[in-house]
Amino acid sequence: MQDIDLDLLRCFTTVAEVQNFTEAGARLGRSQSAISVRIRKLEEALGQSLLSRNSRDVQLTEAGRRLMPKAQQMLQASERLMADMRAPVVSGALRIGVVEYLAPHRMPELLQAMERHLPGAELSFRVGLSSGLMQALKDGQIDLALALHDPEADGSLPVGQDPMVWIEGEEAVAQTPEDPLSLCLMQGPCIYRTAAEAALGPARGRARDVLTAGSVAYVRSAVASGLGVTVLGASSLGPGVRINRALMRAYPLPTLALGLHGRDPRRDQVAVVLREVLAQQLPGAR
Hints:
With 286 residues, the protein is an alpha/beta fold. The chain is 42% helix and 23% strand. The chain is built from ten helices and eleven strands. The protein has helices at 6-18, 21-28, 32-46, 62-86, 107-117, 130-138, 191-200, 216-224, 245-250, 267-281; strands at residues 51-53, 58-60, 92-99, 121-128, 144-148, 156-169, 182-186, 208-213, 230-233, 241-243, 255-261. Helix 7 links the parallel strand 7 (182-186) and strand 8. Helix 1 crosses helix 2, helix 1 packs across helix 3 and helix 5 (107-117) crosses helix 10 (267-281). The model has no long low-confidence stretch (mean pLDDT 87).
């Protein structure tokens, strides 16, 4: 009996999610050609075409739509098995804050993955901005907070990174550095707004703010609709948006360091789990 390679399924589900071979490769740390080879091997093993490709995007075939939920279930089962065997034992009620700019369109999946990796804990989550989570931690309303890493703070452990990227709607006409950019940005103070303005430098004067919002998810939705471009973390990539490579070259951006904050005695154990969750769920944002 022929077994199926979970890595093939992971490549397939990632391509299906982002609808682009190049972006899937970026998330998985592989080249576009390597992803194409893995998809072809999976199609050969199953004897069916799973993806329909054209010059603009990638769509699931009928066989691909049937496979997608099964592939996700198998990957989650594998994840649970590894968590049960390898993860440190964390028990009791545990309140975790998670910064809302991290994969806003995939937050439920991310929280579910954390639950699978910490099966012995009674988890509850608070999603919010970094400043709000830090205040909640100080006030004792949460036990730990996944937010920006602060190397100067004793209670912050690095758990991953999220490179900043210029993104635009995948159906939009690509903006170039020579264009007067239409910007969709978070209201200040905001790390993404600050990074975008610093990267643009003198070109900021030629840019026009077409949207200012208080939610990363709202900014992402506006960009996906074609309203303008923005700066967000690579964890925000997925259906509806793509990286603008020309802007990335013209206006380079920094990488955000993510940290687990707090003095709960279980912090170090949870940090180990979070590093694995982020690597598996958001491989482009390590």
